[in-house]
Amino acid sequence: MSSDLYTQAELFYRNREFKKAQLLLKKEAVRPDCDPRVASLYGLVLARSDASFYGYYRGLKWCREAAKKNPDDPRLLVHLGLVYLFHGLRAKAVEHLDSALAMAPDDPAVLKARGLMGFRQRPRIPFLSRENPLNIFLGKTAVWLKKVFSRGFSP
């Protein structure tokens, strides 16, 4: 029962039907013997359906509790990382998504979630620090040039 419920709710989540997924998971998630994956998905759905701080806090609470119950499941860390990412806490998101990636380097869901963050490029002048003004200037110029030339030259 719980597996079918999780699959259906995950499908709603992927289709961005957060309220439907929330209604589907609500009854199961509040049970004390609930599957941690269901509770974690419920937290992710709560955080996505309500963009306020309250929704973020509730979602974070559910995801943290689920990750405490089963710390060896990379999916739970992905859900926790996505909650952080969607609410602008990139450093915390990187921490959780990288630990999920260390647990399951070949899991497509983990790779997709980590790919949402993007990866930093090397500094343009490697022997200077990343924070060096010259590296910052060259990096911003390279990004600008890439945007300009990717549009093409049509008037």
Could you describe the 3D structure shown?
The chain folds into 2 domains: 2-117, Serine Threonine Protein Phosphatase 5, Tetratricopeptide repeat, CATH 1.25.40; 121-155. 72% of the residues lie in helices and 0% in strands. It contains 8 helices and no strands. It is elongated and about 55 Å long. With 155 residues, the chain is mainly alpha-helical. α1 packs antiparallel against α2 (18-29).
Distinctive features:
single chain, 155 residues, mainly alpha
Reading the helices and strands in chain order gives HHHHHHHH
Number of DSSP E strands: 0
Strand content: under 5%
Largest sheet composition: none
Structural class: mainly alpha
At the first level of CATH, the class of the largest domain is: Mainly Alpha
Q: Quote the CATH topology of the largest domain.
A: Serine Threonine Protein Phosphatase 5, Tetratricopeptide repeat
Mean pLDDT: 88
From the spread of the alpha carbons, the general shape counts as elongated
CATH architecture of the largest domain: Alpha Horseshoe
